[in-house]
Amino acid sequence: MKKKRNWGLIALGGLMIGSGLLGFGVRNAIHSYDTYSYSEPTLPVEDYYYEDGPTTEFAYRATQQLKADGINVPLYLQTDERWKDELIDYTYSLTMETNGSAFASMMMVLSYWQGIDYDYDVIYDLAFEDYFSSDGTIKWKFFEQAGENFGASISNLGYKYEAAEKYLKNGAPVIVAFKANEADTNEHFAVLARTKDGNLRVLDPLDNPDIERYKKVYTPAELTDTIQNYWAIN
């Protein structure tokens, strides 16, 4: 006599085996996705975002020339192809290219003091705080507060050149706020560095190959009337 098969148990067993195989497949799929998604990139991170361009190359060449002239401060440009389109305020409306002169100036002095070549990632450590007024001008508290994020004590030196001169004499760069004028209705930030003969160079975040402002030499008297404030790292 043939034994009767318990079709209910057989069906249940088949369902359990099928579910196990499906779960195993899903787990493997998830594991494979995780492994693929989080694998280390084979290229430098910045290469995934931007390619170097003429402005990047200009800044590099200018930095090498400044070093040859005894100024160990890199030129960072707000128009650098690697980050010019990056948004920098919490309203997501301002970019490095249009409003980033203070950011680029901060990167220059931090690089001098800390010996670090800052790049794309540092902008995220400076951005998205309440640093901008409604008209797009940066609040001066930016320098002191942003400096603290990098372990740097930045002092507001006021508007007199004499307060900045002691830093410049020791070879340290100083951030300046240029006054708005007829040609430029917005205040603009840049970095001053002193040459061995006592003259000044302006490292301008809006410099370009047609201007090459970093090559020009100024006496303090030629600049002081155009500057409304100074900042330096202590």
TrEMBL record:
GO MF assignments: ATP binding; peptidase activity
Pfam families, A to Z: Peptidase_C39_2
Listed name of the protein: Peptidase C39 domain-containing protein
Residues covered by the Peptidase C39 domain: 95-234
GO biological process, one term: proteolysis
Entry superkingdom: Bacteria
UniProt GO cellular component terms: membrane
UniProt cross-references to InterPro entries, sorted A to Z: Peptidase_C39, Peptidase_C39-like
